[in-house]
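Hey, I was hoping to borrow your eyes for a little while. I've been staring at a protein lately and its backbone has me curious. You're getting the sequence in one-letter code plus the fold written as tokens. Would you mind checking whether the tokens look sensible for this chain? Here's the protein in full, and shout if anything looks odd to you:
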Amino acid sequence: MVVMANEVKTKGVSLFDKLFEKASEVIINVRGKNKYVVIDIERYKQVRALELDRMYEDAMKDIGAGRYSTDLDEHLRELKELADEV
């Protein structure tokens, strides 16, 4: 379900309660472009749990393949490099 940003602005948060009766997510359209997705907190928890499970699986694969370091300084350098790429 898509709602215009101005409608959210005028009706406030109560608008979401009404929209969630019909849909599990609400897309907010700003100036003709879909910009945000709003989901209720329970759905967010489910999505976040899936993300964390995936990260755990990826980490276990890296460990299994020997792609890890026990050197803290090296690890911090790698993290900084990754952060700089973003």
User: Anything to note?
Assistant: The radius of gyration is 20 Å. Residues 41-64 form the longest helix (24 residues). The first strand starts at residue 2 and ends at 4.
